[in-house]
Design goal:
- Helices cover 39% and strands 22% of the residues.
- The termini are far apart.
- It contains five helices and five strands.
- The radius of gyration is 19 Å and the shape is globular.
- It is of the alpha+beta class.
- It is an enzyme of class 1 (oxidoreductase).
- Pfam families: OsmC (PF02566).
- Keywords: Oxidoreductase, Peroxidase.
Length: 165
């Protein structure tokens, strides 16, 4: 099934019932020895490991949470570029995305209460290759920046509630 088929099929389903546009995701996490965390994607049959490097108390068996956050952003960018290129009929031969982020550990460790624990700066570099004009790729970038769900998480405050049970 092509991406344009997916887009049109989704449009028809949402036009028929707007509730079809609402989706939920659920992921469970279990701490293992050290900082290793086993992650289970609840609805779909996927699992993966998260860990920290030894300098942060881990065993370096997997990427850490902030690396995965950058990976989520870069992956979402690649996917969103594919979807919007298909939707707009813009030919793409390849998409390469690099995401870099700077984090100051003063905030995470509580060494300074004036430093946020999250990223202070995130930079996304996108390399598109294909026969379309630079202007069309710039238009595509604007569409992707408007519609990428993970970029939206990075750019905007999202309500989060935490319940201790």
């Amino acid at each position: 099934m092509s991406l344009t088929d997916v887009i049109e099929g989704t449009r028809r389903a949402v036009d028929a019932d707007p509730h079809n546009a609402a989706v939920s995701f659920s992921v469970g996490h279990t701490l293992k020895p050290g900082t290793r965390t086993e992650v289970e994607v609840k609805v779909r049959d996927h699992a993966f490991t998260v860990d920290e490097p030894p300098a942060l108390g881990g065993t370096d068996q997997a990427a850490n949470p902030v690396e995965l956050a950058l990976a989520a952003l870069g992956s979402c960018q690649v996917i969103t570029y594919q979807f919007w290129a298909a939707k707009r009929g813009i030919p793409l031969d390849s998409i390469k995305v690099t995401v870099d982020g700077d984090l100051d550990l003063h905030g995470f460790f509580g060494f300074s209460f004036n430093t946020r624990p999250g990223f202070g700066d995130v930079r996304v570099s996108v390399e598109l290759d294909g026969p379309a004009s630079r202007e069309r790729y710039e238009d595509l970038k604007r569409e992707v920046d408007e519609h990428c769900p993970v970029l939206d998480l990075f750019r905007n405050e999202t309500p989060v509630s935490t319940k201790l049970t």
